[in-house]
Amino acid sequence: MVIVFIMVIAMVICQRCAELLVAKRNTRYIKDAGGYEVAAEHYKWIVSLHVSFFLSLIGEVSLRASTVPISFYFWPFLVFCPAQLLRIWSMRSLGRFWNTRIFVLAGKQPIVCGPYRFIRHPNYLVVLLEVGMLPLTFGAWKTALFFTVAKIMILKVRIAAEEQALQKAYQYEAWMGEKGRFVPVRKQRG
C-alpha cells in the first residue's frame, strides 16, 4: 500500500503543479487581453492551505503507518476519480480563461458551457471533494475533516469575491443566477 499511496499522491501533486503552469500561461493571456485580477489578497491563504493539505495528508498517513499498515479505502477513491474528470471538464470548458486566481476581462460574457451549464462552480466542488475523499482513501480522516472545513471557510470568501466581481463586470446573476453553486438545481427567482 505504501507504493500505491506514494504513486497517487505524487500523481495528484504533479497534476496541481501542471495546473499552476496552465494558470500562469492563462494569466499572461488574460492580462495581455486587458484583464485584471480581483481579490488577490486571499490567494496566498488558498495556496498555503493547499500546500498544508498535502503535508498534513502525508504526515497523518506516515504517522499512522508506523503502527498500522496503510489502508486503501475504495469508496472514497471512487468519488475522487470522477471528481478529477469534472476538474478537467471545467478547465477545458473555460479554456484560456481558467485560472487559480480571479480575473475579470471586460467585454466577455460568462462561459456557460460544459459543467457551467448546470452549476456555477464545478471546480470548487472538485476541490471540496478532493480534500475530503483523497485523505479518506488512505484513512486520514483528521486531514479530511480539518481541510474540508477550512476549504469551505476560505471558499465562502473567495466565491463571494468572485461572484461580486463577475456581477459587476458581466451581470453574472443574469447568466448564472438560477443555477446552484455546487449542485445542479434551479433557484427560484423573486
Automatic annotation (TrEMBL):
GO biological-process terms attached to the record: methylation
GO molecular function, one term: protein C-terminal S-isoprenylcysteine carboxyl O-methyltransferase activity
Signal peptide: none
Subcellular localization(s) per the UniProt record: Membrane
Native source organism of the sequence: Brevibacillus laterosporus (Bacillus laterosporus)
GO cellular component: membrane
The protein, known as: Isoprenylcysteine carboxyl methyltransferase
Record membrane topology: Multi-pass membrane protein
Keywords: Membrane, Methyltransferase, Transferase, Transmembrane, Transmembrane helix
Coiled coil location: none
A Pfam family: ICMT
Main location: membrane
